[in-house]
Write the structure tokens for this entry.
Amino acid sequence: MKNTILILIVVSISASCGRFGNTDEKENNKNRIVCISKQYSEIIFALGAQENLVAVDLSSTYPTEIKKLPTVGYHRALSAETILAMKPTLILHDNNIGPEHVVSQLEKLKIPMKTFGDYLSTIHGTDSLIREIGNYFEKPNEADSLCQKFNREMQQALAEARKYTKKPKVLIIHFGRASNVYLVMTKKNTAAKLLEWAGGEMAIDDEKGMKSLSPEVVAEANPDIILLTDFGYDRLDHGKEIEKLPGITSTIAYKNNHIFRIEEHDLVYLGPRTGENVLRIQSLIHPNENR
């Protein structure tokens, strides 16, 4: 019994600490929102509606100030104790949380949980999601401004993409911290849409959104461009040890020094900055194109 109490105290203390040792300054707030969705989290901050946000999931990394908030762990490996330690009055999630027994525990405790509309990962769907979240937080004007900027930048990006004469093959490599291995994104991943809008194409096709990196996968892809997400890139001495990855040195991308760092949160979901992100991707995957 004593051990159980000790564990719960440790969990509670750990959960109340931010990623950089910050304490929870919203302890006395009446409304306490835990958001377990990186897409929702970014939109909430973009709306300026984060006042009652007391914790997020580990993958919510944008904007920078979000890292001051405590985290409740990886969205697919949650624990009820860590979430409860935040004393939430509302849990926001996008139906991509687990494990199932933790979700069941939270439901039995009758903590209010909410998801927003199940919109497709499209330009129109993203516009609709921003507006719905804006209305929920009573920020309709802010949502309208975000959507105008989003649609304007998407139109610019799509117009730019039509000017390119070549559609480069792009290999996106990501380090999965949950599995401790390097992975490649596939045409089933949201990143494939951003590449298409940027005037490129994903080099890997598979039934799943990601698959393990291997010499065979890299050799078959032989990409023109390699994008390596932030954590994995920095783990390789800020890209200086890229040759340690299997098969990379044989690729066209490596021989032409077309290997670039990109933030994971710019690739894996759609949000207010998607148009801006597509424009940034264009500048990376078309290094030799004249506009």
Remarks:
- The CA atoms of residues 104 and 222 lie 45 Å apart.
- The chain has two domains: 8-117, 165-285.
